[in-house]
Amino acid sequence: MESTTSNGGRTFSRRWVLGAGATTLLTAGLSACGSSGGSGSGGGTITAFVYGDDAVKVQVKAIDRFNASAAAKKAKGKIKLEKVPGAEYPAKLRTAMGSPNAPDVFFNWGGGSIKAYKDANQLIDLTDIIKSDSVLKDGFLPSVLAAGGLSGHNYGIPMRGMQPVILFYNKSLFAEHKLTPPTTWDQLLDINAKLKKAKITPFALGGADVWPELMWLEYLVDRIGGPQVFEKIKNGDASAWGDPAVLKAAETVKQLIDDGAFGKGFSSVAYTNGGAPAVFAKGKAAMHLMGSWEYSTQLGKFPDFAKKDLGWFAFPSIEGGAGDIRNVVGNPTNYWSVNARTSNKDAALAFLRECASEQYAKDLVANGDIPTTANAEKLLDASPNPEFAKFQYKMVQQAPAFTLSWDQAVDPNVSTPMLTEINKLFVGKSSPSQFVTALKGLK
Amino acid sequence: MKGGSRVDAGRPPRGSQAKAGRPHAALALPAVLFFAFFAIAPMVLAFYLSFTKWNGLGDPEPVGFANWQKLLTDDRLAQSLTVTVLLTVVSWVFQTVISLLLGVWAAGRQKNRAILSAIFFVPFLLSSTAISLLFYALLDPNFGIIRGDTLGSTNGAFLAIVFVGGWQFIPFHTLIYQGGARQIPEVLYQAAAIDGAGRVRQFFSITLPQLRNTVATSSVLMVVGSLTYFETVLILTQGGPGTDTAILPYLMYEAGFKSYDFGYASAIASFLVVAATLLSLLMVKLSGFGAMRSTREGM
User: Fold this and answer.
1) In B, which residues are within 8 Å of A201 by CB distance?
2) Which tens digit of pLDDT belongs to each residue from A168-209?
3) Residue A74 burial (CB count, 10 A)
4) Is A209 among the domain residues?
5) pLDDT tens-digit series, residues B3-21
6) ipTM of the complex
7) Which of B141, B257, B258 sits opposite A265 (nearest CB)?
8) Which domain covers residue A313, as residue numbers?
9) Is residue A394 part of a domain?
10) A81, A157, A289, B44: which has the fewest Cβ within 10 Å?
11) Is residue A114 part of a domain?
12) Signal peptide position in this chain (chain A) (predicted)?
């Protein structure tokens, strides 16, 4: 077909090219189907995905220990840890789980964060495994173990510390301006006024990430209306956003912003890139509402500040509000879940047992975390900051209610627009009443 | 000069090559396969996904036109479209004016021109993610160089995106304009100089008309580039403050990778492909670029 007339040559090539294109598509389709491996216990190295922040060194150590252990030899497998950097973790996990390259074991927040995987039959139901294994069954606080599950079944093993949201403060700044940690909202406003007079921003806030803004609403709604307000929302009743407590909380937020409580540039500051922690550690802001991981973050980035100046107290109660000052919001902990398609289930389960070990709990304690293992309390003296460790442990232990972070408790379909609306409230793009109207429309 | 035979028009003699004809079609195969695999196939798949409901796990579920219906009624899409068009227009003006002037300057024979041109080109070699992270740090309200609530205010965030995009892509368009300006025959300027035309007059009467096709090329690239702009928005503003800089590609990302609504995300993506294609065709048509008329006709 080496035609010399250009016309003949072209016809030939066009058909040829189309055929080649179709072949490419078919090949792509077939290879995608072919490589989704089978499950079983054939042995071999498996992969674990973990959220790669400052606390990850505990998991790194645990994996090293596990890979060298007899349990790993028996399961004929090792684990390769893949550290996925912060903010994009959920998206990366979702993409991987929908592909043949899914992790065998993965970090998650329990509850709403794993519901889609459970619905797609991608999780190993750990309920019976835990029941028949005394190491796992007796190893963890039952309430925390249960919080990682869905409708009474267990899908996760606790693997990090408790993460209540706490109001952190700079002790030197407070001492310098003769301030004491508040227990009521009026005291807090009084402190804000004094700080502003001294040209110090009352609160650091990583508004660019939006979820630090969410923490303010979580606590305000709890303190004003009690934990049952969000409980209703979580159970799918969107009209519960119309509860007066939500509007009051939104108005309180607006007032704080108008008063300059978060400074001027907070929407340009992020937590995940170290911005907000630096503002706080360098004394530009006096307080920071953040999950308990703030301690390990500061210990990693500003160790001197973490050791000397970092103080903490519970979110104050609000006069006339229904919520108990002992109520806590945040994440009970993080969990490891196991992919139902794992190539080495034995190794995965053996590794989960490692997370119930005393050594694992000790590593968490050394990192400033409070393990959720049953034996945690007696280990806390070894913490780099026993005072903080015990404060946290008590806080969670005594809490009448522990509200799971809203963005983890509801479906991503709801949490994404919810976070957008929260951001709009904080940057002044919507008024408190517009905010409530928008949230009521979320389904 | 004008009298040459019709057969020769526009076709330089190729000697022995002319007899061998065009290169064999198979030589295009690697490029065609590459394009089919990485451009056509994903586009077809996205179009298919836009008629399904899929959260990334399991099999997509057909839902007919539900996603397209949502697309037509979504308030955020309307806002996003406005922001996208605005960003495209402002970026086009900003980038075209600067790169046109820089390009024409760089086409000259001045002292230090080569060195300066090479330096100007550096931003284009950096990844847009790295550039965005760099500017994010520079704009930090507490530790940056420009300490204000730049990214937290609507205009500030918008202008920051325009500026960072320009900073990265102006060098590329400068290069295009430099190439275009170099091709303008020197005799035109000599003739104009004899007639007493100054530099400004020469620029508007010779350079600009001669660069007509270059402007069209560069503009199509700029507009399509602005429509698919993404990393800068993701890193600098995440569509914020609120939803004020959520351009279409970001909205698509949010629907897909935050809400895991890949069906709706694919509908936005398909819409974007159609819109960008129509817009490019329109621009080519309006600019007369499609006719491929030489700017040197009659010379």
Assistant:
1) none
2) 999 999 999 999 999 999 999 999 999 999 999 999 999 989
3) 11
4) yes
5) 444 444 445 555 444 456 7
6) 0.77
7) B141
8) 164-330+406-440
9) no
10) B44
11) yes
12) none
* Pairing relationship of beta strands A79-85 and A163-170 according to DSSP bridges: unpaired
Nearest CB to B21 within list A6, A24, A90: A6
Residue A18 falls inside a structural domain = no
Q: How many domains does chain A have?
A: 2
Q: Which numeric CATH code is attached to B74-287?
A: 1.10.3720.10
Q: What is the CATH number of the domain that holds A150?
A: 3.40.190.10
The whole-angstrom separation of Cα A253 and Cα A111 is: 27
Using CA atoms, how far residue A3 sits from A9, A14, A212, B14, B19, in Å, is 6, 14, 69, 19, 12
User: Over 70: is that where the pLDDT of A389 sits?
Assistant: yes
Q: Do A429 and A410 share a structural domain?
A: yes
The residue whose two tokens read 């210990």 is: A299
Spatial distance between the Cα atoms of B234 and B165, rounded to a whole number of angstroms: 13
Q: Do B147 and A265 touch (CB under 8 A)?
A: yes
Task: Check CB contact under 8 Å for B141 and A264.
Answer: yes
CA distance B290 to chain A (A): 22
Of B26, B37, B56, which has the smallest distance from its Cβ to A28's Cβ?
B37
CB spacing of A17 vs B32 below 8 angstroms: yes
Q: Is A311 helix (H, G, I), strand (E, B) or coil?
A: strand
DSSP codes joined into one string, chain B: -TT--GGGTT----TTHHHH-SPPGGGGHHHHHHHIIIIIHHHHHHHHHTTEE--SSS--EE-TTHHHHHHHH-HHHHHHHHHHHHHHHHHHHHHHHHHHHHHHHHTS--TTHHHHHHHHHHHHHS-HHHHHHHHHHHT-TTTSSS-SSGGGSHHHHHHHHHHHHHHHHHHHHHHHHHHHHHTS-HHHHHHHHHTT--HHHHIIIIIHHHTHHHHHHHHHHHHHHHHT--HHHHHHTTT-STTTT--HHHHHHHHHHTS--HHHHHHHHHHHHHHHHHHHHHHHHHHTTTTT--TTTT-
Task: Encode pLDDT of A16-33 as tens digits.
Answer: 444 444 444 444 433 333
Distance from CA of A405 to the nearest CA of B (A): 16
Mean of pLDDT over chain A: 87
For residue B70, CA distances in Å to A237, A419, B66, B91, B249 come to 23, 20, 6, 29, 17
Q: What is the pLDDT of residues A150-162, one digit of tens each?
A: 888 999 999 999 8
Domain ranges across chain B? 74-287
Mutation target to probe the A interface, by most A beta carbons within 10 A, among B34, B57, B134, B145 is: B57
- Name the residue among B28, B37, B260 with its Cβ closest to that of A94: B260
Using the Cβ of B288 and the Cβ atoms of chain A, whether some distance falls under 8 Å is answered with: no
Q: Are residues A124 and A175 in the same domain?
A: no
Q: Angle B6-B7-B10 (CA atoms, 0-180°, nearest 5)?
A: 85
pLDDT, one tens digit per residue, over B202-253 is 999 999 999 988 998 899 999 988 888 899 999 999 887 989 999 999 999 9
- Residue-wise pLDDT tens digits, A35-52: 333 444 456 899 999 998
Name the residue in chain B with its Cα closest to that of A415. B259
**How far is residue A351's CA from residue A48's CA, in Å, rounded to a whole number?**
10
Of residues B21, B139, B241, nearest to A427 (C-beta): B241
Q: Residue B244 and residue B156: Cα distance in Å, rounded?
A: 11
A183 and A300 belong to one structural domain: yes
**Main-chain phi, psi angles of A326, to 5 degrees:** -85, -10
How many angstroms separate the CA of residue A391 from the nearest CA in chain B? 31
CB contact under 8 A, A275 and B143: yes
**Nearest C-alpha of chain B: how many angstroms from A393?**
33
